[in-house]
Amino acid sequence: MNYKQKQRIEQLTESTLIIGADIAKSKHMARVQDFRGIELGNLLLIKINS
User: Fold this and answer.
1) What CA–CA distance (Å, rounded) separates 50 from 27?
2) 50, pLDDT greater than 80
3) Domain tally for the chain?
4) DSSP H or E segment with residue 41
5) Could you tell me if 19 and 3 are in contact, meaning their C-beta atoms sit under 8 angstroms apart?
6) What gap in Å lies between CA 13 and CA 9, rounded to an integer?
7) Exposed, middle or buried, 14 (CB in 10 Å: 0-12/13-18/19+)?
8) For a designed S-S bond to 21, which of 3, 17, 30, 48 qualifies (C-beta 3.0 to 4.6 A apart)?
9) Which range marks the domain in which residue 23 is found?
């Protein structure tokens, strides 16, 4: 593990909220998890009609 990655991991605290998003062409997905990796709520799916 390199030094930068270790520094980023050490920044995670109990008040950290992680939001991940996949921005594909027509469907976007997002989810939220806490600092332990436990998913909060349901997966959010957004369909884009063009």
Assistant:
1) 11
2) no
3) 1
4) strand 39-47
5) no
6) 9
7) exposed
8) 30
9) 3-47
